[in-house]
Amino acid sequence: MLRKPETLFVLGYMLLPLLALLSAIVGLTMILGGNKIAGIIVLVVVTQVFAFGAFFALRARKSALLEETDPR
Q: Is the pLDDT higher at 12 or at 1?
């Protein structure tokens, strides 16, 4: 299921970037609300996990598309 280009498209272009944006908003509101340490952890760790996950999903989608069109 995670090797299908359609699933990787949804993960790479829609779901993971949206989760990264939402976690960045949560981290910033935590910092502005006074919970600085937890806000920085959310902002640095959680946001970056979702952002890098999107890059990896897009790379896997590209390789899955190339495997589909490979005439072997």
A: 12
- Residue type (1 letter), 46: V
Say how many Å lie between the first and final Cα of the chain, rounded. 23
Structure tokens of 46? Answer: 């959680």
All residues at 6 or more sequence positions from 33 whose CB lies less than 8 Å from its CB, including other chains:
39
31-66 pLDDT per residue, tens: 999 999 999 999 999 999 999 999 999 999 999 898
Instruction: For residue 48, give both structure tokens.
Output: 């970056």
Cβ-in-10-Å burial (0-12, 13-18, 19+) of 34 comes to: exposed
Residue spans of alpha helices (H) in the chain: 5-10, 16-32, 36-41, 47-69
